[in-house]
Design goal:
Helices cover 0% and strands 58% of the residues. It has 144 residues and is mostly beta strands. It has a 4-stranded antiparallel β-sheet with strand order 4-5-6-7, with no helix packed on it. The N and C termini lie far apart (36 Å). The protein is built from no helices and 14 strands. The protein has a single domain, classed as Methylamine Dehydrogenase, Chain H. It comes from Chaetops frenatus (Rufous rock-jumper). Pfam families: WD40. This is SPG16 protein.
Amino acid sequence: IVLSGGDDRLWKTWGFPDGNILLTGEGHMDWLSGCCFRPSGTQLVTSSGDTTVRIWDLSRRGCILTLRGHSRAVRGCSWHSCGDFVASASTDGTSKIWDVNSERCRYTLRGHEGSVNSIEFLPFSSTVLTSSADKTLSLWDVRT
């Protein structure tokens, strides 16, 4: 199964090798910039130009949580390997670490001088890697 999102504001799961669409989700008000499966495979996270991050439950076929806090477009998202945290990167120059269980932002990462364009958790760690339009990469320990 492959996951995609695009300018049409939709995310889609695709089956292979046939390439047939298995599920489609809608709800964002602008383009999708990122999408990622939860490690358990039961949910996914999407990021969008509408400034939100959304959590989707595949069995319910719908959005179960909308995370708001960025002031500009969200360029990327990533799920922590434990499945309890989501990271987001925004053109507002910040990244956020979201606690999915409490449905709140746990940390806001500030330090880039430009748009934060991508974010990834390093596997099985509390370290996040961000890349920015300011031509830098940063490693963050989200515990500190």
